[in-house]
Please model this.
Amino acid sequence: MAKRIDVSGLSAYYGSVRAIEDISLTVEPRTVTAFIGPSGCGKSTVLRTLNRMHEVIPGTRVEGKVLLDDVDLYGPGIDPVAVRRTVGMVFQRPNPFPTMSIYENVAAGLRLNGVRGKSDLDGVVEHSLRGANLWNEVKDRLNKPGMGLSGGQQQRLCIARAIAVSPEVLLMDEPCSALDPISTLAIEDLIAQLKSEYTIVIVTHNMQQAARVSDRTAFFNIAGTGEPGKLIEIDETPRIFANPSQRATEDYITGRFG
Amino acid sequence: MSLTHTSPTRKLKDKSAYIIAGAAFVIAIIPLISILWTVIVKGAKDFDTYFLFHSMRNVAESDSFGGAYHAILGTLEQVGIAALITIPLSLMVGIYLVEYGRGRLSQAVTFFVDVMMGLPSIVAGLFILSVWILGAGFQASGFAASLALTILMLPVAVRSTEEMLKLVSPALREASYALGVPKWRTITKVVLPTALPGIVTGMMLGIARIMGETAPVLLLVGVTQSINGNPFSEPQGSLPLFVFNESQNSLQTAVDRGWAAALTLIILIMLLNLIARLIAWWKAPAASR
Model:
């Protein structure tokens, strides 16, 4: 479990617009890497290229390499559906399936991929909900609709759903931006626990959050509107926040920017 | 500045808007209630189980008995066959347009669906008459009417399926893709169930529309007063046609039967609507119940 990600020379396009240019970075296994930067700097786009979700939008394309251990995710013959089973994703807004119960939501990834067998599923559902720190809150109402939970619980349900298919890597796109501080804390604690099993990449607008949860931080920026986003620097989180090597990073972190 | 004072003109505007909206509602509902009331009062005279389960075979127009069974059976079969053809077809067209369609072909499909939407029902009837009966040489039958009704229901069903699928949030599709679920399973297991209540309602509206169609049926089912359970051969009865024929007659006994048949048709459509509501409620996202 838990694999290393090696990105090199990565550019992504929406139609003819280049959203990110020449990104190269490495994410170590069993670490949390935070992507920070101003809106529109392409950090979410970079994240979505890591499990080939970028190409779900029509007219998009990607250049460059994303190595998962030694396999190029954009190499010939790679099945994007299989990539997404290996690299899971949690989105900005909690998005449980509205027609499904809590149990069915967690089991969805397995069921929709053809796993039957109630006892197998029961085990995975409990393990995943425990893993997402949600089991004690929902164990008595597994058959109730997932939409009936609070926002924070829904987001943990989505995390349980993502880890139920046992991915190697977990991508999180601003997972706390729609949540209150208490739910945010619950998710951050969870990230700290999940780190022991998964490689985690998290996009966040909240710099304190990046400082709290991540081992390494990558700062992205754009030169101006319509310009592609670029990676300014990536380093150990304490170093990025205390003593960044780039002026732009320091400006952004200290709030002098924009 | 006073926080308690509301300007008189604003109060006046509020009141008048309130009254106009209320009046519009009443005006809109008057014809509906009046139709229902008239049909119930006039139709109740002949409406009973005898009427529902007997045909007009060997019944003279001047007789006070006789019934609509042959017509009810015919309409149910014709509409049923049309729905059996239309529902899977329109589901697939809707899914194609929303999930797969790009470029010329999908634009062409959308355009022709719009054109079909405005197609007068008599034209659909004439089309089947010229192609199926005059062209291919088949006899008048319930199935010929089903074909014309299919043409009329298809655009309604496709359009409503399309609209309902578009309403499903892209976030749900992404959530499913991110779990490594292939596109076709995402559509069948996530998108369709989420849109199902709306799709069922749309299909029911389509069925309700074709159930009352008279013009195409008039051209295609032929003439019979007898029960014919086989929609593929021999003329078959039809409820709207029965209403039409009986109401044209100068005898009061026939006119009474026409009203009773009209009442039957309304009850049938309402029953179907009720069933659709139940299905939609039963399949609705549990949280919204």
User: Anything to note?
Assistant: The interface with chain A takes residues 102, 169, 171-182, 185-186, 189-190, 193-194, 196, 283, 285-288 of chain B (CB under 8 Å). Chain B has one domain: 49-288. Chain B has a mean pLDDT of 91. Residues 49-288 of chain B form a domain with the MetI-like fold fold (CATH 1.10.3720.10).
